[in-house]
Amino acid sequence: MNTATKAVTTQPWAGLPIMAWLGRLGYPLIGLMTVVIVWEMIAGKIPGIPTPLATLQAAITLFQDPFYRNGPNDVGIGWNVLASLWRVGVGFGLAALVGIPAGFIIGRYAPIRKMTAPVISLLRPVSPLAWLPLGLLMFRAAEPAAIWAIFICSIWPMIINTADGVARVPADYLNIARVLNLSERKVLTSILLPSVLPYVLTGVRLSIGTAWLVIVAAEMLTGGTGIGFWLWDEWNNLNVQHIIIAIFIIGLVGLLLDAALLALARRFAFTEE
């Protein structure tokens, strides 16, 4: 085989059927183009809805200076996104510090599991925004109240998935630990944690998605900075182009967060295998 032939056969697309590339790139592009076409049709029928081209031009102008500051409540879109991510990070981190250990305890000890089951069943379906007024009452400020709402909505998936994972650990593993007279710490690090880690990561992934959904609504109610407040402020200014841009930003950030945690979950799943 000559050098030219080798150069051709070592290309990443060599040997791949056209349908494989169509599935990887073509179908997603077709889906996006369909959304744009439908959007263009709706914009032509409903007054006030901007066209995709007009929205793209507004986005280009908006992102030319995403980190400007003209006052405490007049900042660029970049600062608003970072403010929302910071609130989500703090509330989510606190929920992980409380929820994951609580899930281990609930799943490990049957009496505690039976005691907490009705409490979790009662509180878990409550909308996180229903807790926001209580947060305002307790903390007397919008910032910690929004973090409180994130904490509440993030903690349940972590508790439930972690407890379920601990409860599903094979009894034979724990019986062997008793025979070997392993300490509770050794049981946790050598048996429970490796077995439960996929469940924990599933709970974390569900929690971060819920947290990002809730922070937008919470910021609409509490004000200040953040992507939710920015979206609501643009609605008050009747700037529909920026509202649509905010929707795409919220979706993109949520997609990136989910993709990062999915990659983390796959990494640990591969390690375990």
From TrEMBL:
Cite the Gene3D superfamilies for this sequence.
Answer: MetI-like
| GO cellular component labels | plasma membrane
Regions crossing the membrane:
18-39, 84-107, 145-166, 187-206, 212-232, 244-265
The UniProt entry's GO biological process terms, in alphabetical order, are: alkanesulfonate transmembrane transport; monoatomic ion transport
Cellular localization per UniProt: Cell inner membrane; Cell membrane
Q: What InterPro entries does this protein's entry cite?
A: MetI-like, MetI-like_sf, NtrB
Alphabetically ordered keywords of this record: Cell inner membrane, Cell membrane, Ion transport, Membrane, Transmembrane, Transmembrane helix, Transport
What is this protein called in UniProt?
Nitrate/nitrite transport system permease protein
* A single GO molecular function term of this UniProt record: nitrate transmembrane transporter activity
Recorded family membership: Belongs to the binding-protein-dependent transport system permease family.
